[in-house]
């Protein structure tokens, strides 16, 4: 588990192995990223985890940084092919004096001149770099120069929402060229394949996962949110769903993922944003989506756009206590997985449990969509079969620790939680259960 720390200011770097104590304390991804942020607020960490490249597991990579948009701690995942990067973590510190491309290869870091590609958009940049670095993983910013700039990983994977692209622009980093991991994040064992056989059955038999595979997040959420009256905009969902089924769909799933949820629009949020702006035609939306991606701008950049209706108690509390200041569709995972009824849910306990689960997956680093079918008990079995001993309770406790530490860091940073319409006594109950005084 190789860590590469790069000082952009004086162009020095160091590589070292993650020690076992820190690994068990932080795992990888979001947990380990938080460790670096607590040490050095100005850094950007891009990390994988022990499940980022294991056969059959939907792997991702995670980026952690202080967001220029929210001014708080931010984590976002991408899964084009960055989850297959060789280093376990890359940590960028300081600011480069000149415009550069970072090449991280064979425990070495090179600072290449980035001036000739600085003004290129995302597609142009990948075309130039792709010809030169055929075996490497590429990350790049576009040419939008906006606080809503994201970091793109090939043309269909993005570290979005928090303005990571803008932060890299400020640090004078245009692109990263990273060595590929030709092995696995964790070598699969016979026991793993036995467990996985049962778990893949569970995944494939799950209604929500099947909907994701067949019609992407757009199809699944139109159907499931529409049926429950939880859509964030007034869409005639049955009509729109039938249009979506007729629309020609292209698979753009993350490398190695058995679910393959990504279709033409990789994110549900993209559709909702454009719909919110008044666009109705799916081809027009798809074209706008492509333009945004080409420039390297996030399709969800309007604070007023929410991916699910935020007038119910679950979404309200989720937004009010989100360390990123947004509502993610993943708050629905346990609701759908356990077939719960929204009206019977104890919002505080529910939101805490889901936030903890997501923090665990972000630290392993695997796709949160699996939580529609698998729970932490399943993940504990996967980890055990791979040689990592974590009970379900220990994983949950780990997620709790990470979430709580993020709140503490946000408090120090002066991050403003979007309390909005959430009732004061619910907030008090939430923070009391988290063991935090606000
Ligand atoms: S489920 Fe979708 S977002 Fe998740 S890893 Fe698979 S393709 Fe990527």
Walkthrough of the structure:
This protein has 438 residues and is of the alpha+beta class. The model has no long low-confidence stretch (mean pLDDT 92). A hairpin with a 4-residue loop joins strand 1 (2-7) and strand 2. The chain has two domains: 2-178, Aldehyde ferredoxin oxidoreductase, N-terminal domain (Aldehyde Ferredoxin Oxidoreductase,  A, domain 1, 4-Layer Sandwich); 190-434, Aldehyde Ferredoxin Oxidoreductase Protein, subunit A, domain 3 (Orthogonal Bundle), CATH 1.10.599. The strands form two sheets. A six-stranded mixed beta sheet has the order 2-1-6-3-4-5. Strands 8-7-12-9-10-11 form a six-stranded mixed beta sheet. Helix 6 runs antiparallel to helix 7 (237-246) and helix 10 packs across helix 12 (347-364). The longest helix is centred in the middle third of the chain and has 22 residues, at 207-228. It is built from 15 helices and twelve strands. Bound molecules: iron/sulfur cluster. Iron/sulfur cluster binds next to loops. The site of iron/sulfur cluster has 12 residues, from loops.
């Amino acid at each position: 588990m190789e860590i590469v720390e790069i000082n952009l200011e004086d162009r020095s770097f160091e590589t070292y192995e993650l020690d076992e104590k820190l690994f068990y304390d932080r795992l990888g991804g979001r947990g380990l990223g938080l460790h670096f942020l607590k040490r050095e607020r100005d850094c950007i960490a891009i990390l994988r985890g022990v499940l980022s490249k294991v056969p059959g597991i939907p792997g991702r990579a995670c980026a952690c940084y202080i967001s220029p948009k929210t001014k708080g701690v931010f984590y976002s995942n991408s899964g084009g092919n960055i989850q297959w990067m060789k280093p376990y973590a890359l940590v960028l510190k300081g600011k480069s004096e000149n415009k550069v491309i970072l090449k991280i290869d064979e425990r070495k870091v090179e600072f290449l001149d980035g001036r000739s590609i600085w003004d290129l958009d995302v597609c142009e940049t990948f075309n130039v770099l792709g010809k030169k670095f055929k075996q490497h993983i590429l990350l790049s910013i576009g040419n939008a120069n906006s606080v809503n700039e994201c970091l793109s990983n090939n043309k269909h994977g993005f570290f979005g929402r928090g303005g990571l692209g803008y932060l890299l622009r400020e640090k004078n980093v245009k692109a990263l060229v990273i060595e590929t991991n030709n092995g696995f994040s964790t070598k699969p064992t016979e026991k793993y394949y036995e467990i996985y056989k049962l778990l893949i059955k569970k995944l494939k038999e799950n209604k929500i996962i099947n909907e994701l595979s067949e019609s992407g997040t757009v199809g699944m959420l139109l159907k499931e949110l529409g049926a429950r009256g939880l859509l964030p905009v007034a869409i005639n969902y049955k009509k729109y769903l039938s249009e979506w089924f007729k629309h020609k769909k292209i698979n753009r799933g993350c490398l190695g993922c058995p679910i393959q949820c990504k279709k033409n629009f990789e994110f549900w949020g993209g559709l909702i944003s454009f719909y919110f702006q008044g666009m109705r035609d799916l081809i027009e939306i798809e074209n706008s989506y492509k333009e945004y991606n080409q420039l390297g701008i996030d399709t969800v950049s309007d604070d007023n756009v929410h991916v699910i209706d935020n007038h119910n108690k679950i979404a309200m509390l989720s937004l009010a206590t989100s360390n990123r200041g947004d509502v993610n569709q993943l708050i629905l995972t346990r609701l759908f997985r356990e077939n719960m009824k929204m009206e019977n849910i104890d919002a505080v306990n529910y939101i805490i449990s889901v936030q903890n689960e997501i923090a665990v997956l972000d630290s392993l680093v695997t796709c949160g969509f699996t939580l529609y079918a698998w729970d932490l008990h399943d993940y504990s079995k996967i980890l055990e079969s791979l040689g990592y001993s974590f009970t379900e309770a220990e994983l949950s406790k780990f997620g709790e620790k990470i979430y709580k530490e993020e709140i503490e860091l946000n408090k120090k940073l002066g991050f403003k939680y979007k309390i909005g319409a959430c009732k004061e006594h619910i907030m008090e109950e939430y923070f009391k259960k988290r063991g935090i005084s606000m």
